[in-house]
Design brief:
5 helices, mainly alpha, about 160 residues
């Protein structure tokens, strides 16, 4: 049993982090999504701990996935630059995707899925959404612009 945990420790840490990320952001989205304006309040009041946890987790996951993509892209470019001339290579996006671990791919998918839900809530609820929602939505859009820059870049001619 201990050997299983030893071999899976990184997967366990990644799973706990992603589950916690989803749980915290679902709590925020449920609170904002089901909130009905009352009196002079323009947005629901959120618990300070929830705001802090959601902000830290969104920033952390966005940074972690962006840096993992950046390092992988740099590694692939370095490998392509060092390859002998005329050697047929794998396409750049396919090579980058092949080098990403399952944990990184899962983190990217979770970040984008939750981020897109946050973006939809931000757009639908408008002024009733909190600054936290708006900040994460804008952060996601920035992250997507950076990722799209990689996806849509021109590949080197073989």
């Amino acid at each position: 049993m201990a050997d299983f945990f030893r071999r899976q420790v990184f997967n366990i840490i990644a799973a706990v982090f992603l589950i916690l990320f989803v749980a915290v952001w679902l709590a925020v989205l449920l609170r904002v999504g089901t909130w009905v304006p009352t009196g002079t309040a323009t947005a629901p009041a959120l618990n300070g701990a929830l705001v802090t946890a959601a902000g830290v987790m969104a920033t952390s996951l966005g940074s972690l996935t962006a840096s993992a993509l950046g390092f992988t892209i740099a590694e692939v470019k370095r490998g392509q630059d060092e390859a002998p001339p005329g050697e047929p290579g794998v396409s750049f996006p396919a090579e980058v995707a092949a080098k990403l671990s399952g944990r990184i791919i899962a983190a990217i998918m979770v970040y984008m899925a939750v981020g897109l839900l946050v973006l939809v809530v931000w757009l639908v609820k408008g002024p009733a959404s909190t600054d936290l929602i708006g900040a994460f939505a804008l952060s996601l859009l920035g992250w997507l612009v950076g990722a799209a820059g990689v996806v849509f870049q021109t590949e080197k001619a073989a």
